Automatic annotation (TrEMBL):
The keyword Flavoprotein does not apply. The lineage of its organism: Eukaryota, Viridiplantae, Streptophyta, Embryophyta, Tracheophyta. InterPro entries: Leu-rich_rpt, LRR_dom_sf, RLP23-like. Belongs to the RLP family. GO terms for cellular component: membrane. It is found in: Membrane. Keywords: Glycoprotein, Leucine-rich repeat, Membrane, Receptor, Repeat, Signal, Transmembrane, Transmembrane helix. Its main location: membrane. The keyword Transferase does not apply. It is a single-pass type I membrane protein. This is Uncharacterized protein.
Amino acid sequence: MSLLIGSHNKSLTFPQLEGLALRSCNLTEFPEFIKSQNKLTSLHLSNNRIHGLVPNWLWKTTLIWVDLSSNRIDIPNQIAFDDAISSFPMLRWLHLQSCNISTFPAFLKSQESLEDLDLSNNKISGAVPNWVWKKSLLSLNLSNNSLTSLDQFSSNQDSLRTPICNLSQLQSFDASFNKLSGSIPSCLGNINTLSFLYLQQNNFSGSIPDFGGATQLYALKLKDNKLEGKLPRSLANCTMLYAVNLGNNTLHDTFPLWLGKLPDLMVLILRANRFYGPIKHLENNFPKLDVLDIASNNFSGQLSIEFFQATHKLRSLKINGNNLEGKLPRSLANCKKLEVLDLGKNMIHDTFPY
């Protein structure tokens, strides 16, 4: 859809207009008739071709929801207000992903009511300023940038003084695909509202923190880092866990059979680590598991009939690149849901499974 707003329409006024959604309308500039919309609470202009500086008149003090994503825009460092108000007291939801932004917008300093902030897929680098960590935040997405630190004043990201530790209501945090290093802040494991934690594709090192307090955790993705040590046994307390992806680290532990009691776990990815030892006693565990990937580790021992009986509900099974041995049980034919099976680079001796 292409929306053309000519100069003769710049004075359009809709006195009762509260919500305006012009997504994917091929706009090249901000519609000037917005100037006169004084009751606007919701503004969605994402996925257009708007470029240049965001005009001051766009920022209405009545705004609650703003989405300017997927435009090539510049946010001014200072936003002037005719009524001398220096913030948007109603603003709760701000999405600026894929906007070609290179710094954190300075006006965020005074936004104390933000609940959902998305700055993903931009060109922001360096440390996250401490004023970004609003206590009101429920969801924060900083993924796909070039961030190097979560704390602008400290290199010790495991400290309980790290600003992210103040976000006691946080439900979703995504800082994946950055250049973050150091330890994962231990306080993340104590936020009892946290459901989604995505920190994959960074340079985090050290051990995975204790998650004893994060009992609402639903998805944990820490793949492609430099994490080491054992899996925290406290993950067994996260009874709502649906997906765990810890692939491509240097974790050194035995197979986490203790995760098998989680009632809703469907995805378990441990590939490319240093897990070792046999895989036994899977029967009566992992009741809903759909994807199991333990490839490229040091698991060893016999592949038992019980193993395949326990995994007969799987859609994807990857155990390649280990030291497993034995024959394929004929019960493998009962895995009716199986779409992906990779057993390569083991010591399995058998005839071709016709």
